[in-house]
Amino acid sequence: MTNEAVKKKNSFKPKSVLSKPVITTRMLVSIALCSAIAYVLMLIEIAIPIVPSFVKFDFSDLPALICVFTFGPLAGVFVELIKNLLHLLTTHTMGVGELSNFILGCCLVIPAGIIYKKNRTRKGALIGMLVGTLCFAAMGFFSNYFIVFPFYINAMGFPMDAIIEMGTKISPILDSELKLIALCITPYNIFKGVIISILTFLLYKRLKPILKGKA
Question: Which of 94, 98, 118, 164 is most exposed by smallest CB count within 10 Å?
Fold first, then answer.
């Protein structure tokens, strides 16, 4: 059989045989490591004076975003899922906070991962994180209005007046649920997304070889 015939025969082999596996052991180990780090970071909450006391800042989306740029959008979703499943062991919100955190985290990492996958440049990463941050903030508005606030009011028995009072202590204009979410919590979520994005931009290139096992 000639070389030409061999090449032609090999060209008809299924792509799944010739291509590398989509999920590797290194990828699974890295997802597990990032999930564990994300869970620990989720436990380290920082109070921010410009938002109500029940809103805390944490860096738990950082490992997920770095994992997304390294392995793709699905990897980041798994990190977001695993960290919140682990956090259920110590939840104070009956899983509602974890559900909201998972939804918001996915809104941040999935758009960033999809855009970066199509344009693997610094510009692509920046655009991806910008779009992800905007999706994160937009979904945060709906999440707080339809999930988080109703949970505190109906399930936890937290009076709306008390929540509004927290807002008016920050600024007199935050005198309604809608204003508190739109003018206080949503800008805060944009701020959080920007901070996470900046840290990802600074750390990704240094951490990628470690996650890929090439350090």
Answer: 118
Q: Which tens digit of pLDDT belongs to each residue from 175-212?
A: 999 999 999 999 999 999 999 999 999 999 999 988 88
Least confident of 14-28, 108-122, 132-146, 170-184: 14-28
Structural Rg of the chain based on CA atoms: 21
User: If phi over 0 gives left and psi between -120 and 50 gives alpha, with beta otherwise, what is residue 179?
Assistant: alpha
Within 8 A by CB and 6+ apart from 145, the residues are: 177, 178, 181
Distance of CA 5 to the CA centre of its chain: 50
CA atoms within 13 A on the CB side of 170: 20
Q: Residue 60, Cα to own-chain centre: how many angstroms?
A: 8
Could you read off the pLDDT of 52-74 as tens digits, one per residue? Answer: 888 889 999 999 999 999 999 99
Q: d(Cα 32, Cα 141) in Å, to the nearest integer?
A: 30
Tokens of 181: 């979410």
DSSP state, residue 22:
S
Asked whether residue 16 carries a pLDDT value surpassing 50, the answer given is no
DSSP 139-181: HHHHHIIIIIHHIIIIIS---HHHHHHHHHHH-TT--SHHHHI
Spatial separation of the C-alpha atoms in residues 148 and 125, rounded to whole Å: 30
Cα 112 from chain centre: 10
**Which token pair is 81?**
């899922």
**52 in Cβ contact with 170 (< 8 Å):** yes
In the prediction, which pLDDT does 181 show? 95
